[in-house]
Amino acid sequence: MASISKIPSSAKDEDLEEEIEHFDDFTLASSWERFISEIEAVCRQWLADGTKNLLKNGAISVNIYEDLYKVKTDLKYAMKSYCMEYYFGTHNDVGRGKGNDWSCALHDLQLSFGVNEFLVIAPQSASGVVLDGPEASKLLSAVAIALSNCSCLWPAFVPVHVPSRKAYIGIQNMGTLYTRRFEADRIGSQVPLKLMHLEGLYELFVSKFAFSNMDLSMHLFQVNLKMNLTYRTVPYDEDFDVQEPEGGITEAGGSPKSKHHNRKPWDDDCPWSEWYSAEDPVKGFELLTIWSEKAIESSLEMAELENASPLEAEKWSISPCVSEILSADSDGKRIGFASQLQLLIDALHMSLETQFVEDFVSVEHSRPENLKSTAIIPPPTVLDRVLKDLFYEVEAAQPDFAEGDHKNSRTIKGAPLESLFGQFCLHALWVGDCNIRAIAAFWIEFVREVRWCWEESQPLPRMPANGVIDLTTCLINQKLHMLAICMDRKHQFNQKGPKADENGVFLSARIKADTEVQSVISSQDGDAQASCWECDSLSTPDQDPASHISSFEHSGAVKLGDPEHSACIRRGSAGVVGSMMLLKSYQNMHAPFTRDSPLMTEDMHEERLQAIEALGDSSRFSAQLEKDILSSDMSAFKAANPDAVFEDFIRWHSPRDWENDDNMEKGVSQINAVVESTYDWPPRGKLSERMSEHGNLWRKIWNEAPPLPASEQKPLLDPNQEGEKVLHYLETLRPYQLLEQMVSTAFRATADTLNKTSFGGLKQMTTRIEQLYLTMSTTLRCLQTNSLFVDAEDIKDLKRLCTTFAHVENLITLAASLHRKFMQAPRLSESIFNDYDNFHVPKLGTVSIGRDVKKVFNNEQEVRQGEREVIASMFTPPTANQSWRKVLSMGNLLNGHEPVSREIIFTKRDHLCENYYVGHAPRGYQQEFETYRMYVCGTSNDLGVALAVTSCD
């Protein structure tokens, strides 16, 4: 019996009425009625929550569709379990809208029946469909009653038959007047020939509301039609006779630089093709040609429409068929720079296991326990081929390291791309499987080859033999640059002999600020030469003619005009220094040719800094460490100015240490002390306190320095000694020190290689590359701390950098492919790329991602009228040997290609007059209503049909 709660006497009448109103008697309810009540309660709850609350409470995003979410609940009836799902969007017109009937973001039920939000109730079974017809009808009736009880207008669907048929039955209560019924089914094979053509499909739709077959030929039925035809280009690798391996490695453990194909690959002219062959990320394109709604009155018009050209369609849109290899789910499957950098970081992690590189390849030492047994050493033939490419197959001209480099490339402390070590690192990525043993064997052979070049006096390839050592590069590159300079100077010495000018090409005129050397200096074949100049203009009429310079020989020696002068030979002069005059003789001061400062690498500079800290006295340290350079300058100055004294040298070399007399009528500032008037002689002034103190080291060096021009002095840089030091460094380099420099150089070199890719004016791609360089510069700083190890967090950061690098590498590959295919339509190339880039922004880690990230890229781009010819040219006429070609059975051909898919929406609208359900309606009231709708989708091999009928019953 039903229980009645006791009502207090003090309760109000309205409370009593409310209690009676909510009284439910379940004593006679059947299980089916209780099932309806459960459905009704759930629907009422969803209606009450609304869209915003459902999203807050954990509504699930339907991943492959835009702005479509669902909530679900489990129900039980007659010992069976069911799942009821409610699909909704955040906008009222989710999925459907004007001009959006063919959006790829629509759910199948939205596209088939033209609905927005809807319910789906299905059994919780392996098939997920209702196989029994009466059960499906009863299930749909229960949902319809529940929705009617809560005044809800949601359409409800039940999947039936087998899953492959995608069959549904459904119903929708549209108020007190109309009911809409739905039915969908699919033919998977043996489609009737009549239904392959538009004429037959039109007659199929008319048969749904015509009273008899006679009406088809005797009556004209006005039907509205929308059509969408999809064409797909031939895959670009369809005609490849032999498919190459993606990594392009043709020999076990070898470098992929020598590959042969039966057909030129798509990326043959791309910068990365020298190292690997990338799969074309754009397999083809899908072209959607859309005919807007038009009225059709006979099957004859449908036959004419089938013969129409796709160029007559009102709208074109194109969608790329992007390879799955670019998706985030395929990380590790694609062979490219990023995958090899991952292996190199693993080798870096392993490099701490031993102290010497040889231990990784020596059979006398046990290998590290955690080293994989599959880590093989490449065979000698492979190493020989790679070394030949590094050292012998090189152009004679020295490479321009700055050419083509990105502006942010120098922020990464590695070797330039075209340098010897930069190319070594690129080769190391592909030698073997880039394991630590293969790298160790490659490095040992590399150093042996470098030593051979040194001992045989052969130029070091890919390295400049002059210039200043770039301290922003890695130390190995600096050492190789130093070795190349030493080899060049050693070669020059061997050619000229010990009595010749050993280092003439490295002489220079020391020119201070506000100082003019009035001469024209040239260098040819390593000999410092000076052209003759007129010096009459440098003297005044009152000057002694004997002080004039009469000639300047090619050897740099000048005879003074006064033969009785104590020093009659001037050697190594580069020209007169402005109007400066010597203190003890009425002669012009000459600037000497001096030797350049000795070249130093980064570790040599660090040694000097440590010496500063050890000496402590910074004022005396400078002269002590620079004694050789200072003595060389003093000797050259004495040779160019035979009558000079120590004060003259200070005035030329260190003008700040010469203090002018304050009582001079025409005072000259201390900074510009080198510019003096020829009328004021001798110059009045004194040495600074630093230079005039007792026991000054500079004066001692001056007294000991012989008057020798720079061409006759001993070189400041001993090429033999410095070259052996470089080779010792390379041969004793610790594994970790080698690998940390290899990682930085490999990232820089691979990024510079990809940066050379031609991808048109894609600004977004340019931005991505700039961001990559900045990210690399920040992440790789952990390898520049001179520490003996990297911690686990650093390795994780480097791994994440590889992931970011892989995404940018994929984008560059896509940009290059699109640029080649849309040379005549760059707007489409840019639009497609930007869509794909925005699609992958969450995967790059720059935006937080949630559960609603789409898994498949399927954006469409509208093709403008002037771009249609470019797109049509992509559909080349099919050839007979293409396996995909079938017997043509559908119309609307595009350059011989039939549509791969055809979608049609037939609709019929009627004016429904008032009836007994709406007796209160005004007289003559009429309303146009969509009474029939049929969606047809299929090809010549399958056909799907979805019918929606609106009626008053």
From TrEMBL:
InterPro entries per UniProt:
Rab3GAP1, Rab3GAP1_conserved
An example Gene Ontology cellular component term from the record? Answer: cytoplasm
Principal localization reads cytoplasm
**Keyword Lipoprotein included in the entry's annotation:** no
Give the subcellular location: Cytoplasm
Q: Where are the transmembrane segments?
A: none
Keywords assigned:
Cytoplasm, GTPase activation
Say which domain of life the source belongs to: Eukaryota
Q: Name one GO molecular function term.
A: GTPase activator activity
Give the family this protein belongs to, as stated in its UniProt record: Belongs to the Rab3-GAP catalytic subunit family.
| PANTHER family in the cross-refs | RAB3 GTPASE-ACTIVATING PROTEIN CATALYTIC SUBUNIT
Q: Which protein is depicted?
A: Rab3 GTPase-activating protein catalytic subunit
The encoding gene is LOC107775079
